[in-house]
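User: My advisor asked me to double-check a structure prediction for UvrABC system protein C before group meeting. I don't want to rely on an old file, so could you generate it fresh from this sequence?
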Amino acid sequence: MAEDEFGLKEKVSKLPTTPGVYQFFDANGVIIYIGKAKNLKNRVSSYFVKTNQTSKTMVLVRKIRDLKYIVVNTEEDALLLENNLIKKYKPRYNILLKDDKTYPWICITKEAFPRVFTTRKFIRNGSEYFGPYTSVKYANTLISLVKSLYKLRTCNLSLNKSAVYSGKYKVCLEYHIGNCMGPCVGYVQEEEYMEYIAQIRNILKGNISSVIDLMTRKMKEYTISLQFEKAQEMKEAIEALRSHQAKSTIVSTSINDIDVFSYLEDEKYAYVNYLRIVHGAVNQVHTIELEKKLDESKESLLSFAIFEIRQLVNSRSKEILVPFYPDVLMEGMNYAIPQRGEKKQLLELSERNVKFFKMDRERQRGLRRQDSKLDLLNTIKNDLKLPRLPHRMECFDNSNIQGTNPVASCVVFIDGKPAKREYRRFHVKTVIGANDFASMEEILYRRYHRVLEEGGELPDLIVVDGGKGQLSSAVATLRKLDLLERVPIIGLAKQMEEIYYPGDKDPYLLAKTSVALKTLMHIRDEAHRFGITFHRKLREKKQTISVLSEIKGIGEKTEVSLLQYFKSVNAIKEASREELAKAIGPAKGNVVYDYFHSAMS
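Assistant: Sure, here is a fresh prediction for UvrABC system protein C from the sequence you gave:
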């Protein structure tokens, strides 16, 4: 066992029973897996118990040569450490987070007359950051809204009071075109400017209603004091905010500051959707995709995703809605599985989002596979100078040993991949002895004569295993069937991997690294494997029948009964008199027993 050979058994036996994180290393000292555990000893020991292990876990265990661990105080600490270490080392057998983008933030700078802008860099300099926004479009929409409502400065000038009131600066073009209020020359007081910043802060937090209420009061004050231009500007700002609010998904006026997570998985991937609910509206939506490497539980995958997403969006929500409980519940958080009402509807909204995300990813992967497939077929078409894309390729191979049991095989590749249901085996009927040329001629005639009779699909390329001789026989057959001009055919010789075309004296050589050549070799080797397997079965069957047929007093029906009961000749040889009697009766059982045991003595 691996743990005995590399001293792992002793290390596992000495592990503590506390929460922690464990690391598995391979022969090169590289971390290949990182995991968290409530009980380190129990969790790590489970890897070396062979019962109920999946094939993926068995592959991992075979590669383990060393282990290390880190003790922590709680399961939540273990989840945090595991998350950070996986990001740092990216072990081969850990789940792979497919979403590694840098998302934009909206920054309110810490300075006199603050600036507001989007950035992908989070700098801890006292400035306020909102986000990150997983939708760049949404972040840009918010910035556009802020710029349309408030004429904030965009320059990098240091606007301290002495500089402003000493006349150090002059207004720039932004002021003249109406995009800035001119704080650099004192055209707006800092107190008024900071009121606008407070409103922007509320908008970014999702509390748009309070900003609308404040603006409505201001508009009335301006109207009473006959400042109609300012009142009109305020009215337009209110309408802009209400328009933005209407575009947000309002879920409930009574629900505030909740995180919603939904989960969907297939054999290879897990998908987790996140909705952030602030002041009754969906403030943020994000979905991540996790590529599974081992057979991780959905509870552990959900834990990882919740922790990852909340870190990403800097969530401080205390209430979390989930479809099932994750394996680690973070302290101070209120987890709930809603059964009815508005919160249940929120979870269903998240589930619809994750479902559509999964469908979209599957479509994208399908398109990538389609592109890759077309690239391969185009390469083969160009390298082999074919008239069309070789969507369907068929390859033939003969198998015989010293002329016995001559058989042939036909394998079919569709779009570069084996189509095993289309494979065919042939007994060579008209050829006696080892004559590959005649056998090839017979098999191709039978194959394509039937295809033509039944109206079947002809291939875009025929490959025969062999050189000039085999190709000439195949060409003669296609000429008889009037297919030579309709179906391209080549021969592939084994020694130098030479390609032969009909009528050409010299072979055509492709580079050993050629994708087209590698594909042809794969098809040829598959045809050879398929044919040899068939030939071997025939020989074994013949040998089995010949051994049993040598026993006097045992007929064909008894041979079949014996093979059905014992499955092999070796099992028949090792059977006791009682077992043989049970299968074919005492008299015949004694005959078979005596034959094998007298022959062995």
